[in-house]
Amino acid sequence: MIEQSPAAPRPLWMISGPALGTMLAAYLLGALIGPLRETLERDMGYSTMVNLIVLAIHFLTLATGIVPALLLGRRAPNAVAAPAIGLMLLGVLVLALAANAVMVMAASLFIGFGSGAVLGTALALAGQAGARRTAMLIAVAAVAFVGLLFGLVFGWFMTTAVSWRWVYFMAVPMALVSLVVTGAGGIVALTKKPA
After folding, report:
1. Which whole-number Å values give the CA distances from 13 to 10, 121, 142, 149, 178, in the listed order?
2. For residue 98, what is the DSSP state?
3. Pick the CATH number of 12-184 from 3.40.50.300, 3.40.50.10490, 3.30.70.1060, 1.20.1250.20
4. What average pLDDT score do residues 25-43 get?
5. Residue ranges of the domains in the chain?
6. How far is CA 174 from CA 47, 109, 167, in A?
7. What letters, b where the CB count within 10 A reaches 16 and e where it falls short, cover 125-159?
């Protein structure tokens, strides 16, 4: 359970960058657990066991990334969310250009940890929303659900229509927008601090 901070609630716009990052994280997870998984297995020529290892890496690093982000994301949300989104961007690029199973595993490591960190930050910020805490937690869950659904549907469409690599190439602009919004939120937060 996320404890409410005794400090003054943060402005609601602070959550926009981490929320977009959460949507991206859910999109990448939805794409990975959808039909794209079997296509990756076939195109890369690896076994079902390697595929399960990739999923395990993704889920374990996602869970590992949430814990420090819940703690650190309360104090410095943009300092946690921006590198997390950058890590997801790096993972997306590695995965889109992957030539073998080792690259897929490395990309899954980056994407998983970044996803966990950005999700933890979004949850930490939602937990500090004061009277709107419940509504913000529901909003984070809704954003994650939309991203997951979009990852499943769009991942299936792009995999069957073009190539599985385009599922990840299309994630690059989403990651860049998330990064810009998170950075802008940090800059605005710094300029609005009382002297």
Report:
1. 8, 14, 17, 24, 13
2. -
3. 1.20.1250.20
4. 90
5. 12-184
6. 30, 19, 11
7. bbbbbeeebeebbebbeebbeebbebbbebbbebb
- Tokens 């997390």 belong to which residue? 84
As given in the structure block, the two tokens for residue 23 are 């949507």
Token code pair at residue 189: 């937060």
Which residue has 């710094």 as its token pair?
190
Phi, psi for 45 (deg, rounded to 5): 75, 30
- Quick check: 3 pLDDT over 60? no
Q: What is the DSSP letter of 194?
A: -
Please name the residue ranges forming H helices in 34-132.
Answer: 36-44, 48-72, 77-96, 101-127
* Rounded Cα distance, 180 and 45, in Å: 37
127-138: pLDDT as tens digits: 887 788 898 999
